[in-house]
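Run log // design_07
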């Protein structure tokens, strides 16, 4: 639980108390302030939850990107091994085939690194959109489910 969740929950409870007290005393201004605090507290709490979830998604994305990078490195290493074996065989047959095998190994290695970087960029590149989307949904839900007196 983060600071926004705690502050949002306490503001929501404060708003409920204000609304109830305003209802008991017949003070509509206090009821309105209470309702506003309830909505604002709910939105702040939802933002805190969204932030927690976004941080979890970021961590998941980093793990996925790291796994993709490791897999790409493994594939590049395997491909390099195959290319070197091919180059050894080719060296026995013809000298120019060696350079072709090395070029192919470098190209596959480059592609593997590129795919790993793209996976990492994709995982790291969507943090803000996720947080903003969840915050907007939370605010809309708070607005739709607000109490009407």
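design_07 sequence
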């Amino acid at each position: 639980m983060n600071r926004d969740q705690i502050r949002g929950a306490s503001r929501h409870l404060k708003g409920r108390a204000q609304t109830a007290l305003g209802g008991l005393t017949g003070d509509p201004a206090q009821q309105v302030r209470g309702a506003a605090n309830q909505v604002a507290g709910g939105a702040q709490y939802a933002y805190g939850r969204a932030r927690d979830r976004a941080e979890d998604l970021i961590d998941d994305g980093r793990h996925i990107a790291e796994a993709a990078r490791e897999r790409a490195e493994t594939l590049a290493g395997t491909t390099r091994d195959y290319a070197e074996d091919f180059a050894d065989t080719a060296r026995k047959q013809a000298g120019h085939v060696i350079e072709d095998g090395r070029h192919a190994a470098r190209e596959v290695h480059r592609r593997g690194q590129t795919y790993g970087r793209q996976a990492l960029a994709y995982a790291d590149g969507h943090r803000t959109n996720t947080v903003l989307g969840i915050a907007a949904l939370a605010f809309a839900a708070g607005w739709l489910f607000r109490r009407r007196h």
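The CA atoms of residues 15 and 40 lie 9 Å apart.
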